[in-house]
Write a structure and sequence with these properties.
Chain B: InterPro entries: Mce/MlaD, PqiA-PqiB_transport. The complex is a heterodimer of chains A (209) and B (546). Chain A is an alpha+beta fold. Chain A contains seven helices and eight strands. In chain A, a hairpin with a 3-residue loop joins strand 7 and strand 8. Chain A starts with 12 loop residues before the first strand and ends with a helix. Chain B is α/β, with parallel strands linked by helices and 546 residues long. Chain B is built from eleven helices and 28 strands. In chain B, the strands form five sheets. In chain B, strands 20, 21, 22, 23, 24, 25, 26, 27 and 28 form a nine-stranded mixed sheet that branches. In chain B, strand 12 and strand 13 form a beta hairpin. In chain B, helix 7 packs antiparallel against helix 10 and helix 8 runs antiparallel to helix 9. The radius of gyration of chain B is 51 Å and the shape is elongated. The termini of chain B are far apart. The chains are: A alpha+beta (209), B alpha/beta (546). Strand 3 of chain A pairs antiparallel with strand 1 of chain B. Bound molecules: zinc ion. Zinc ion (ZN) binds next to loops of chain A.
Chain lengths: 209, 546
């Protein structure tokens, strides 16, 4: 068990996000900083609700992101729509196994893992679970860290769209899947941001009290 | 609480209170995001379901070039579907392709819908599916007109030559053999390619081939009820009484064969033939056009001369117009006449004897034909063998009015009736040569020579007498007269010299008569030889191993 900790929330104190001024909490009200007027929150406001909303949106868009083509290639001899999975399959069958694994991880596994991880965090936080708080905190840090790297596919598609544009010979354009995929990535990043990791530790204090 | 020795814990009074604002009790706007996402996702799903067409399965022999997720189904070069799966059938004999078609393609599917794999293919002189070399194979579809709920199809191994979307008509050709016909063999009309062979089957009885030929619109209107079809395969070289003929339709047909069709040029334009009308596929243009002469009148011609150079199929010609052909050449021994006859059976096409201008005239009744022919024979119509081709010695039969022909008529009692014939022009030439030789032969050359000799001897005697007379006179007449007598004697001597057997005149005459005799012999030889080798007139004498 971690050492007994006192949190600002326990003491009814609020810290201003903008100017850092510590102020007293006034219950049942929307508080503002007496110095700069910024909103004051004990915890991130509606953290769990926001996280859930963003997670649900991300889950919903994860499906079209994987089903719809992310890239449309049209050349003089053929026209092709590529989904993330068909791209992975193509890389795998053409022998680029490391790249296939990388793309698969970055585009399929990681976003899904993030969604699941955030769901677990939000679920446990909502039920005020005290289960493996240390690991959950580490998981949150991991999710936040990985977030910025899961844009790989969008990055590749964007690059391709920009580079391959020999009008008459071949054109590559982003498909609707790319939009959904980008939305999933952004939504999970927001979900991770809106989740307040302090919620992981809150139940412990309540328990101790 | 732990003791904070270094930094004192902030006192309550030091910490300002947060400003309170009235609480807003509205659901957080953040929930708009999943709602929008759900709406977007839902719309995409609905859209995808709406755009999803029928799923079909097609059975092929091989999956060569077909790849799940990559291979497209194309109609008029537009993607209308994707292959989603390729599996072996349960019996492991075929493959089953599952394909997802685009929205609103149901009406392309029907009982007669055909699928085939388009791969690069060289057949029938054309290269097709070249683009698939780069893009990979795709599945072509020939939609049926009537939509049904059929969803399982058996694919064709080869692209059909004719698809239902092509306008035109299909005709059935009955052929003796395939020649160089194949699926895709071009059809020519006046050397323009207007269609292709779409299929062929061996007749069940094995006695022929049934060929299906598709003629594209608008050329199908040129296939009329009296149209003839013939093999236009390769180069058709024929050498007959009409001379050397080379026929070909096009360079392509030389390489891959072809079928040509046309209505007989001397017939009026007929109604366009209905689809699937059956035609006979003739071996060549000539035999195709011969079919036109439905009405045939067989006749037999008796010749006494050599028929060498006359072949079955040789034309029967009336002043340059072919009005029939030789059907058979036989050999017959006439007991009553005690001679060998050469009966030649011919087919006359009475249609062709009727004038082009009088096309509308009703066809003659048999009785009328008999009357007309009788009248013509009475006016000297005879059959005669003539040399058609100077190079090959091919003969043809000419029907013509022969001035001064001996009286003859048609023997209608026998079948086929016999038309009177006269000796051929060559035979006539031989006869003339022979008669000249005979006359020359009959010349009493030797007796002429003897008589001339006798005459000369007599003349000699006369001259001798005259000489005596002169010498007598010489002594008895006056010297004046003597000079005259001398001159007379000189003249007599000269005459004697001239008339002597070894005199040049006498010699020349003998030589001439001998030459004539030799010429007569040569003529006899020539006519004899010509009777055996008429072609020698042109080719020259040839050593015949006999
Ligand atoms: Zn402040």
């Amino acid at each position: 068990m971690t050492p007994r900790a006192v949190s600002a929330a326990d003491e009814g104190l609020l810290n201003c996000h903008s100017c850092g001024l510590l102020s007293k909490n006034v219950p049942n009200a929307h508080d503002r900083c007496p110095r700069c007027g910024a909103h004051l929150h004990l915890r991130k406001p509606d953290s769990l609700a926001r996280t859930w909303a963003l997670l649900i949106a991300a889950f919903l868009l994860y499906i079209p992101a994987n089903i719809l083509p992310v890239m449309h290639t049209a050349s003089i001899i053929y026209e092709e729509d590529d989904t993330i999975m068909s791209g992975v399959v193509y890389l795998w069958t053409s022998g680029s196994w490391p790249l296939a694994i990388l793309v698969f991880c970055a585009s399929v596994t990681v976003p899904l893992a993030k969604l699941i991880a955030l769901s677990v965090l939000a679920w446990t936080a909502q039920h005020k679970s005290t289960w493996r708080q240390q690991e959950r905190t580490r998981l949150y840090r991991l999710v936040e860290f990985v977030g910025r790297w899961s844009m790989l596919d969008i990055f590749v598609v964007t690059l391709m769209v920009g580079l391959v544009h020999f009008q008459s010979l071949a054109t590559i354009s982003a498909g609707p899947g790319a939009v959904a995929f980008a939305a999933v990535v952004v939504l999970t990043m927001f979900a991770a941001m809106s989740f307040d990791p302090r919620l992981i530790w809150d139940p412990e204090q309540k328990q101790d009290d | 609480m732990t003791d904070q020795t270094h930094t004192p814990a902030p006192q309550d009074e030091d910490i300002p209170s947060a400003k309170a604002l009235p609480k807003r009790r509205l659901p957080s706007l953040i929930w708009l995001i999943p709602i929008v996402a759900a709406l977007a996702g839902g719309w995409i799903a609905v859209h995808a379901i709406m755009q999803r067409g029928p799923t079909i399965t097609i059975r092929f022999d091989t999956a060569e070039g077909i790849e799940a997720g990559k291979t497209k189904i194309k109609y008029k070069d537009v993607d209308i579907g994707n292959v989603t799966g390729v599996v072996l059938t349960e019996d492991r004999q075929h493959i089953k392709v599952t394909a997802q078609l685009a929205h609103a393609t149901d009406d392309l599917l029907g009982d007669k819908t055909q699928f085939w794999v388009v791969r690069p293919r060289v057949a029938g002189g054309t290269v097709s599916g070249l683009s698939t070399l780069l893009s990979g194979a795709f599945i072509g579809i020939d939609p049926a007109r009537k939509a049904t709920d059929k969803r399982d199809f058996v694919g064709l191994e080869q692209a059909p030559i004719v698809t239902t979307r092509q306008a035109g008509r299909e005709f059935v050709l009955k052929a003796q053999d395939m020649g160089s016909i194949d699926v895709g063999t071009p059809l020519f009309f006046r050397r323009v390619q207007v269609g292709e062979v779409s299929a062929y089957t061996l007749d069940k009885d094995g006695k022929g081939i049934t060929v299906k030929a598709f003629v594209h619109a608008p050329y199908d209107q040129y296939v009329t009820s009296n149209t003839r079809f013939w093999h236009a395969s390769g180069v058709d070289v024929s050498l007959d009484a009409n001379g050397l003929r080379i026929e070909t339709q096009s360079l392509a047909s030389i390489a891959i064969g072809g079928i040509a069709f046309q209505a007989p040029p001397d017939q009026p334009v007929a109604e366009p033939a209905a689809a699937d009308t059956q035609f006979t596929l003739a071996a060549d243009r000539n035999s195709a056009m011969k079919e036109a002469d439905r009405e045939r009148a067989p006749f037999v011609l008796y010749f006494r001369e050599s028929l060498r150079g006359l072949s079955v199929g040789a034309p029967v010609d009336f002043r340059g117009i072919t009005i029939g052909e030789v059907k058979a050449i036989n050999f017959e021994f006439s007991k009553e006449k005690r001679e060998i006859l050469m009966p030649v059976t011919i087919d006359l096409y009475p249609d062709r004897l009727r004038g082009r201008m009088r096309q509308d005239q009703p066809i003659h009744t048999p009785a009328e034909n008999v009357r007309i022919l009788n009248a013509m024979v009475a006016h000297g119509l005879r059959a005669q063998l003539r040399t058609g081709n100077l190079i090959t010695g091919q003969l043809y039969i000419a029907l013509d009015f022969m001035p001064g022909a001996s009286k003859a008529d048609i023997d209608w009692k026998q079948f086929p009736p016999s038309l009177p014939s006269v000796a051929g022009s060559l035979t006539q030439l031989q006869d003339t040569a022979l008669s000249i030789a005979k006359k020359l032969d009959a010349l009493p050359i030797e007796s002429i020579g003897k008589n001339a000799d006798q005459a000369m001897r007599n003349a000699n005697k006369v001259l001798d007498n005259a000489d005596q007379l002169v010498s007598r006179l010489k002594n008895e007449v006056t010297p004046e007269a003597q000079t005259t007598l001398k001159a007379a004697q000189d003249a007599i001597n000269q005459a004697k010299q001239t008339l002597s057997p070894d005199a040049p005149v006498q010699q020349n005459m003998n030589d001439t008569l001998q030459e004539v005799s030799k010429a007569a012999q040569a003529f006899r030889d020539l006519s004899d030889y010509l009777s055996r080798h008429p072609d020698a007139l042109l080719r020259g004498q040839k050593e015949d191993a006999k």
